[in-house]
Design brief:
This protein is mostly beta strands. The chain has strands at residues 7-13, 22-27, 34-40, 49-52, 57-65, 71-80, 87-94, 102-105, 111-116, 121-127, 133-141, 157-162, 169-173, 178-185, 190-198, 205-210, 216-221, 226-233, 238-246, 258-264, 270-276, 280-286, 293-300, 306-311, 317-322, 327-333, 340-348, 352-359. The strands form seven sheets. A four-stranded antiparallel β-sheet has the order 3-2-1-28, with no helix packed on it. Strands 4-5-6-7 form a four-stranded antiparallel β-sheet, with no helix packed on it. Strands 8-9-10-11 form a four-stranded antiparallel β-sheet, with no helix packed on it. Strand 6 (71-80) and strand 7 form a beta hairpin.
Amino acid sequence: MSESKRLLVLVGSYAEAENEGIYAYELNEDTGSLSKLDGIAGVKNPTFVNVDAEGNKLYAIGETASAEGNKMSEAVALSIDPSTGKLTLLNRNDSISAPPCHIQRDPSGKYLILSSYHGGLVGLQALTDNGEVGALLDEKKHEGQGAHPERQDKPHVHSAFFSPDGKYMMVQDLGADNIAIYSIDADKNELVLHSETKTHPGAGPRHLAFHPNGEFAYVINEVDSSITSFKYDAAAGTLTELSTVSTLPDGYDGKENTTAEITVSNDGRYVYGSNRGHDSIVVFAVDADKGHLTLVEHVSAEGEHPRHFALTPNGKLLIAANRDTNNLVTFTVDQESGRLKYTGHSTGVSKPVCVKPVYL
């Protein structure tokens, strides 16, 4: 990393189209303070974003409506000026046929993947050679249901994450207690279902994070507030369940809790997850040989409903997005113990959902 690069935090949020919904902040790594550089309006509910640091581009989801009034998706491309943080709309294109909740970019940079919770859909979208959003190429609709009568009465696709080698894509279906593993047929521009992994009943898998060794994957389960460790077979493209731990303290009987985000530290020693209700970040230590998790601590999110969080590229800071208290909060990360400490810096942002720290 050159000294000229600065650490930006790109933020997606709930917003009406006429209001700012995508933001760029600069993060001071010494203090943990955030300074707003830009905000852009024109996209309805750009809750999740994906950043191409090499291309200085940001991709966001947006909600649209069909001529008949049905809720639909769009994918939006913006450029990021590394020197100022200014965001500029490049283009936008229609996407999957239901409102979106997550956006991912494949390692080759040829595709975007959009997920729809409400529609139970996952879609494959083209990226042009100059990094703009192309046409929707394929859409797969999931089937099935889970054990929870209200939360899991139908499929709820929540996210897509690629295996470390980029060969397979894990699609978490909260409603069907299922992880659908796809490959991409680049000749036909299609999603091909490769295998499926069922979670335990009533889990509600939401997001996934791979261990840097590529052998383990961790899935945070929204419905029953747990994290499941999986063994990943890269050759076979399959996940095998190892163990499950609760994200809540023993005996917790407070307000209803659902989990949200999960990430693994760069050195693979710690896993972090967020609790909405308990309003905390939970920290686990990783057994390097077996992949199992052991509780380290729970830390207050310093706000309500931590919808998302992220570690900075060097792993020294964590930024949490508290949707219901409209604030971004920074924590220092003890590199040895994995423990978090609130920096004292909380920045007001309307209904933040997603934070992506990158050097530009």
